[in-house]
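Q: My labmate handed me this sequence with no annotations at all. I'd like to see what the chain might look like in three dimensions before we decide whether it's worth expressing. Could you predict it?
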Amino acid sequence: MQACAGTLRLNTPKQLDDASEKALIERCRRNDYEAFGRFLDAYQNRVYGFVRRMVPSLDEAEDLTQEVFIRAFQHFGTFDSRCSVKTWLFRIANNLCIDRARRLDRIPAHTDYYPSSEDEEAIEIADVRWQPEMIALDEELAKLVEHGISTMSEKLRGVLLLHDREDMAYEEIAGTLNIPVGTVKSRLFLARAHLQNVLTEYLKHEGSKV
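A: Here is what I predict for the chain of 210 residues:
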């Protein structure tokens, strides 16, 4: 596909209003490359940022990001306009990252503990954003946070990034990943617990040096 060929573009995102998005969707349904290029410009940086934190290498992140947009273009005819294009693209991106992990047989066994039914009791958590920028002055600690994110399962990492980096609400994440809101909250709770454990061990170690 010409729009995704070659080196990954990192253009400044251009926000699309609802009317513009609807018009572009109809053009994309007719395989309009120029219209799809508008979506590429608007969302590629954000999708790449998400994928880059889901996979370990730059090359893989670029390849997967291009695959997201290739698949989107190929399947625009089946796009459900009840959701936004942004939500749809992140769903494709998350699924590709999960599929990659499954192929590599790297899904940790503890992912079986995730709630999978709306009947499961949701874990209530405070809607407080984890912000890596708050610890940016401590390079070692910031690296530890990144390590903590990279070592959690893709399911936990995906929810954490969509909520804290993409600023998606629980309901939007649920629609993106096609899971119940209660599962979103539970995975977010587990992701933050994982980070807390990583940081607690670090702080204990640092405290013992004093």
